[in-house]
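A.,

Following up on our hallway conversation. Structure tokens first:
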């Protein structure tokens, strides 16, 4: 069972820096025919980091400069942690809901049985 107070505190902490989306690293061929990348795929430029996300219904991809790469990776890890904690809280809530439904079902069953024997 999830300790909800601890989880909510951790959610709040993650929310301070989280960035939703996915990260990808790609290499590129620059287009200069005299560059080594033109003939040798192993010598392509990069890897370059990109943040991909959807905003206003449109897919976006943003280049992340190397000096900001670690900060974006940390923000993305905070997003993944936020999702993990949220899923754990939701699963705990679902279990409590299912137990309450089962209790209500048992109460209704006992009431029907008690009502049927009086008639």
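Then the amino acids I'd put at each of the 119 positions:
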């Amino acid at each position: 069972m999830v300790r909800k107070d601890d989880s909510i505190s951790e959610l709040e902490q993650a929310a301070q820096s989280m960035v939703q989306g996915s990260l990808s690293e790609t290499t590129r061929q620059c287009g200069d025919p005299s560059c080594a990348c033109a003939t040798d795929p192993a010598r392509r430029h990069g890897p370059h980091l990109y943040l991909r996300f959807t905003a206003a219904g449109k897919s976006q991809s943003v280049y992340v400069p190397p000096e900001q790469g670690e900060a974006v990776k940390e923000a993305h890890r905070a997003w993944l942690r936020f999702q993990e904690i949220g899923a754990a809280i939701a699963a705990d809530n679902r279990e409590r809901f299912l137990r309450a439904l089962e209790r209500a079902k048992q109460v209704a069953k006992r009431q029907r049985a008690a009502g049927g024997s009086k008639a």
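Strands lie at 22-28, 45-55, 58-64. Curious whether your intuition agrees with the design.

B.
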